Amino acid sequence: MERRELFRIFAASAVAARTAIGQHQHGLPPAFDFSTYRPRFFTDAEYKMVDRLCDILIPSDAQSRGSHDAGVIYYLDTTLHYGDAAGQQQWRAGLDAVETTSQMRFGKPFIKCVHSQQEELLAYMARNEGAPTTTLERFFVTLKRSAVEAYVLSDIGMHEYLGYTGDTSLPAFPGCTHAEHKR
Amino acid sequence: MAAGVFDVCVVGSGPGGGIATYVLASAGLKVALVEAGPRLRAGFDYNAHGSAYEHLESRLKAGKRGPISSVFADYCERDHFTPVGNNPGHGFLKALGGRSLCWAGHSLRFGPLDFKRWPISYTDVAPYYSRAERFMGVYGYKDGLYNLPDGEFLKPVPMRCAEQLLHRGIHGLKSRGFAIDFVAQRKAMLTQPHWSKRAVCHYCGHCMRGCEVDAKYTSANTPIPSALQTGNLTLLTETTMTRISVDATRRRIAGIEYVTGNGTAGKLDCKVLVLACSAVETARHLLLNKPAEFPNGLANGSGQVGRNLTSHFGLDVIGLFPELRSRNASNDDGTDYFHSLITSLYWDKPHPNFDGSYQVQCGSGVHPTSLMIRDVPGYGAKLKRELREKNVCHVLMDMQGSLFVSPKKYIDLDPDRKDRFGLNLPRIHLHYEQNDIAMAQDMTQVCEEIVRLSGGEVYRSPGTVTAEKLNIDYNHWVGTTKMGLDPKNSVVNVHCQAHEIPNLFIGDASVFAANPEKNPTLTNIALSWRTSEHIVEKFRSGEV
């Protein structure tokens, strides 16, 4: 099935899935609209930077759209906006480290770099993922963990990427129905 | 509030308090149930369904944690105790129903061997297990294991694919003479119509976030409404007990003092007091109240209140089954994560390196709101591919070990920190010991072997176990008002009646004389039922 057609089905089912408050119903949730969202924690430049970084981390492919389409940046900005000061400070330090590195390597801000430069910078951030030692490397771990959480909770992440059709009502739970697993 | 003296005051509306209230009120006694938290509306005050992104803004703006409603995360107390040692926790859900609102529903009978160190036997408790299971609605298979006795079950819920594959490994160990079994879980959820007329489960998997259709048993959806229907129950919510009043002359409980949610102070008198505040809070309240007649705290002549603290603890092993990579993982929800259980370990023949036993609850499947594997290295296409694949084909094995009882594990009062009512907070002392570490090391090795024998790969394992790697189950604390025959080394007798105060009873799991590997709630409910019937008999005989 084409991704666009899938998206149209999600949007159409938004009306069918809308429920009265407090009633218990199931069905595919409406696709969340964040197109008019304005950032509250990130600056405009940071918003674009983090959006781009997340989209490199979790890109679109033939099976499912990536972070940008999923609205991961909205999730991150909202979470940080309401987050505690320590977490906000950690992010600010990480974003500064990205900008500093971009200036050092490419002589310009991250959002002015071409895609190949942005991908090169992310690869540099990720090089010690298993044992980060610098602010930049630690920020990669934080950024990736946050992006993964935000992505799998998004409508695109859950339904397109994971193929999840749960959070619904079943008359019975079938469990494992495979004879070969019972041998 | 009704004037006069109540027959019984029950404090705490969790699993034990709820059932005590029902049994006592149904027998015609005038009961006051005092609960510090509010009454929550299933489906309105907690409802985990729907889009995380749609709820994110409103939830965070309201000061809640994360985008998904969770009755525990949204209503639990914070900064309400002092931890000492190896990161003890204290789950305190302040709402009508207590932690029965957020429990997973696991309902396992203790077996005959589990009562070895108790002054009562399985035979004494068995009738109450049956009553509890029928009352609650518990599903399960009849497995025929002598020390995990079968109950009165509703239609069972099967395992998922990855859990099913573990049978191969279990069979492999059994063929070597290792004593082990693997069964599907037993849970207090309705899988068929029930006398309570609660909704039948629809397998959405949000059980521990709060069941908004009440398919899962809670104190708030079954015993308390039933008790209210008798007309014998006065329910006081958002009412915090601040003091227990003692009749000094007769060395008996006279009643309690309390403060309501709007700050109004009050008191009520009762002929019998049942404390069911949880092992931590019941011990705390007994220690807080030190009239001249009880200088060490109420019912604490033995010095055992707060002692004998135990729980379950453990760590996880994760396996992967490559043969499951391309399976249909569209809906693995079920009845929350753990659908199966490794059991029968060291029942008959103790391990040479540790005392006690453990069980291993196993779960699998893709659950986006609680994805088990998140830290896959790399990014881009590789991350997407492996993140999905690993979650599709994983199985997680979570140890529940019986925490070693010792003088290093106990509850006392923090001399410096108090709550908003001026009452000292509890202090929980947890120090893992060699017994605990040796048990966890064995679990690690056994589970790794099971995964390999099942045809899987070990994806994550703790390796060499240290105290820092262990996790406590902070919802399973038991033992702090230990049951025993000798008042010198126990707090309550075989009817959970305080040795020193004849009209004080304990209705929660603080009475546990020993803690096997099995989840405590069904036994808590059965014992509270038994205690309550004993109280009824005392009234009927004129003893009270």
Summarize the structure in words:
The complex is a heterodimer of chains A (183) and B (544). Chain A has 183 residues and is mainly α. Helix content of chain A is 56%, strand content 0%. In chain A, helix 4 (72-81) crosses helix 7. Chain B has 544 residues and is an alpha/beta fold. Chain B contains 10 helices and 20 strands. Chain B has helices at 15-26, 52-61, 71-75, 122-136, 161-175, 223-229, 279-288, 381-392, 434-453, 521-540; strands spanning 5-11, 31-34, 82-85, 138-139, 153-154, 181-184, 233-236, 239-247, 252-260, 265-275, 312-314, 316-320, 338-343, 358-364, 394-402, 410-418, 424-430, 457-460, 471-472, 504-506. Chain B is globular, with a radius of gyration of 23 Å. Chain B starts with a strand and ends with a helix. Chains A and B meet through helix 4, helix 7 and helix 8 of A and helix 2, helix 5 and helix 8 of B.
Distance between the termini of chain B: 23 Å
- SSE sequence of chain B, one letter per element: EHEHHEHEEHEHEEEEHEEEEHEEEHEEEH
Largest interface (CB < 8 Å) = A-B, 56 and 58 residues
Estimated structural class of chain A: mainly alpha
Number of strands of chain B: 20
Nearest-integer average pLDDT of chain B: 97
Name the quaternary structure.
heterodimer
Distance between the termini of chain A: 35 Å
Task: Please name the defining characteristics of this protein.
heterodimer; A: 183 residues; mainly alpha; 8 helices; 56% helix; B: 544 residues; 8-stranded antiparallel beta sheet; globular
How are the SSEs ordered, and which strands pair?
The complex is a heterodimer of chains A (183) and B (544).
Chain A lengths: L2 H15 L26 H14 L9 H4 L1 H10 L3 H22 L8 H11 L9 H19 L1 H7 L22
Chain B lengths: L4 E7 L3 H12 L4 E4 L17 H10 L9 H5 L6 E4 L36 H15 L1 E2 L13 E2 L6 H15 L5 E4 L38 H7 L3 E4 L2 E9 L4 E9 L4 E11 L3 H10 L23 E3 L1 E5 L17 E6 L14 E7 L16 H12 L1 E9 L7 E9 L5 E7 L3 H20 L3 E4 L10 E2 L31 E3 L14 H20 L4
Parallel strand pairs in B: 1-2, 1-10, 2-7, 3-17, 4-5, 10-20
Antiparallel strand pairs in B: 6-13, 8-9, 9-10, 11-15, 11-19, 12-15, 12-18, 13-14, 14-15, 16-17
